[in-house]
Amino acid sequence: MATKHYKIHLTKGSSQVGQQCPISHRKVQPGDEVVICAQTNTVFILEAWEQTLPLWENTCQYCQTHVTWLNGQKSVKLQPSPTLKPKIPFPLDTKPAPLSKPALPGRYELIPPRRSGFFPWLFVILIIIGLVAITALINEQTGTSSISTRVLSRPSQEDSAGQVQLLPMSTPTIQPENISPPTPALLPTETWTPPPVLRATFTPIPSQPSTSTNNQLKQTQLECVKSSAIRNLYPQQAKQLITAILQHLGEFQLPSLGITEQTMRTALTRCETGDRINSVVQEVWDDWLGIARNKDFDPTTTTPDNEPLSPFRKLVVRLIQSRQGRLSDSQQHAIHNFFTRFEDPSVWSNNIDGVIGAVNRESFLWP
Question: Is the residue at 97 inside a domain?
Fold first, then answer.
């Protein structure tokens, strides 16, 4: 809704009496016809308002509202006065320039701002100072000065009285010569010595465990799996799980949590890990085969990511399928957690599902 502008006739008791019109810069008096901006509570003398509003394109510059209504009635379309100079509009972001006395009744002209003459004079003074300084510098370098001397001649002949006769000679004018400035004395300078070149010391990266070491650990784990008392109907999948874990040993890099390649290698050397491998493969792979039969897909090539499995079960399936990428922090923690946690030996045959649930909560924060 547009802001309303009211036109009223001021009386002696009006609260607007004494306020200054921002256009004509005159205080309103009783009997004046004024316009009041309802939003900003600004008072304008009606005569100045009607002359200035067309220059504002019928938009109040104090509330930024297009003025089309006065006292609820449509106002008359105002035309700019011919005596106003539209080529010198005052800026919209400042107060309007004061109006001069009316040249004609009801007409106002804008007074253009005066320009200060200080800057042109300052520019001339700077030029004069520069010329004087340049002239003094030239005179000092060329050394132009007139030198007049009088030279006594040698005695050329003697008179009869034995007196030396002085011959008048003309005074030569010494031509000015370009006097070169004296060569400044060379000051001794310090000999620059290049700083010593710092060469990086090569620190060899510790070599990764040899393939033979991993093969030996793999054979140890396979023997532990075969000798385990835990029932497992999927020995091939247990072998694939052992192979995948050994391939990812170098990715266990959480030393602040005590999870490193060495701690994992130490955990896998314990023969009781065969019980853990048989137990988890029997539980996870058997359930995965049941899901594959119900949904009719290949369990060895289908990703478990889209199936309703817990994070640790998905991780075990991907490791058996050899589809697991680089281990994330939570996945490293989960595998380390499973092979190093203290559990009663009976849980590997009676409650492997409870162990998997504990790993999900502790490593993946999975409910």
Answer: yes
Q: Which long-range contacts (CB under 8 A, 24 or more apart) does 263-268 make?
A: 263/336, 263/340, 264/335, 264/336, 264/339, 265/209, 265/217, 267/336, 267/339, 267/340, 268/217, 268/221, 268/339
Q: Are residues 96 and 225 in the same domain?
A: no
Where are the extended beta strands (E) located within 184-338? 253-254, 259-260
Structure confidence at residue 189 (pLDDT): 58
**The Cα angle at residue 171 between residues 169 and 172, in degrees rounded to 5:** 120
Tell which of 50, 80, 112 closes a domain: 112
Burial 61-98 (b: 16+ CB within 10 A, else e): bbbebebeebeeeebeebeebeebeeeeebeeeeebbe
Give the end of a domain, one of 112, 139, 160.
112
Please provide residue 158's backbone torsions phi and psi, each rounded to the nearest 5 degrees: -110, 145
Strands 33-37 and 42-45: antiparallel
**Structural domains of the chain, count:** 2
Mean pLDDT over 220-240 rounds to 92
User: How confident is the model over 133-181, as pLDDT tens digits?
Assistant: 998 888 877 764 443 334 334 444 444 444 444 445 455 555 555 555 5
Using alpha carbons, list the distances in angstroms from residue 164 to 8, 155, 160, 267, 356: 119, 6, 10, 130, 138
**pLDDT given at position 36:** 84
Q: Per the structure block, which two tokens stand in for 134? A: 């340049």
